[in-house]
Amino acid sequence: MKSTDHTEKKAEKPEIGKTDFNVTFPSLEADTICQDREYCMVEFENEKKRIRFHDYQEIYSIPGLYEHIFYEVLKCRSPQLIGKLLENELERADRDASELTVLDVGAGNGIMGEVLRDMGVRRIVGVDILEEARMGALRDRPGVYSEYHAGDLTALSPEMEEALCNRNFNCMTLVAALGFGDIPPEVFSAAFNYIRDGGWIAFNIKDEFLKTGHESGFSRLIRRMEQQGTMKLLVQARYVHRLSISGEELMYTVMLGRKLCDVSPSLNGS
User: Fold this and answer.
1) Which of 89, 65, 109, 6 has its CA nearest to residue 126?
2) Distance between CA 116 and CA 256 in Å, rounded?
3) Were 121 and a residue from 78, 116, 221, 257 both cysteine, which residue would form a disulfide, CB within 3.0 to 4.6 Å?
């Protein structure tokens, strides 16, 4: 599906913060740019620079820019969809969102956390490898997270590890952060193991990463988790995550299940 040409599309004043900026997207080469290399030109404070979509530290530094690019222009719908599916499964299990203690992994500047809060979740802990993400979430969505930690889940400080171990998480969310060098299988497994047995697991992943033999390793990990009884999958659905800069639909798969036991280190192996 094609959308309107974004080449000269300029940003409205963002809802988050009071920052003014102008954003333009490539047009002539847009059809040839893969998702991992998408970018835009941003004019901010009398400076114009090219920002790659995966340069999150730069995007989060400008209030409203992330929301404008991915939600206003490219129509991302993943947090809302995952939140709705989680609500549906909680209702089927006769559970309430207020009972959840959520570990929001790859939390960014807090959009999934905000969805969870609006669902009625009272205890949400955010984790992201970028300090800029933590700062953006505290700036744009104060009060959404009970705590927000910046760090690598496979190389935690003793203080951060103790903080996460003591929270007794019964739900993990991970939205639009798997693959592309952002969150590898080892980090997913480490986060998964902080959730207690029986906890809810909700995440999405680009269809491409689920293909057998894909170099990212996620296809192998998720298949083994199911085969070895690590996770019981309740929902698996293919959907449009967002549009590309050329207007093409980017297809992702949402997965929602229950944790049965920890992931063993061997599941991440070859």
Assistant:
1) 109
2) 15
3) 116
Rounded Cα gap, residues 78 and 59, in angstroms: 19
Beta strands in 21-160 (DSSP E): 22-24, 39-44, 47-52, 101-105, 123-128, 147-150
Condensed to tens digits (0 to 9), the pLDDT of residues 103-123 reads 999 999 999 999 999 999 999
* Residues 34-81 pLDDT 10s: 787 899 999 998 899 999 998 999 999 999 999 999 999 999 999 999
What are the CA-CA distances from residue 170 to residues 99, 111, 121, 142 (Å)?
9, 20, 12, 23
Task: Let me know if 17 is exposed, middle or buried by CB neighbors in 10 A (0-12, 13-18, 19+).
Answer: middle
| Ordered domains of the chain (ranges, CATH) | 78-268 (3.40.50.150)
- The beta strand positions in 115-248, using DSSP E, are 123-128, 147-150, 169-174, 195-206, 231-243
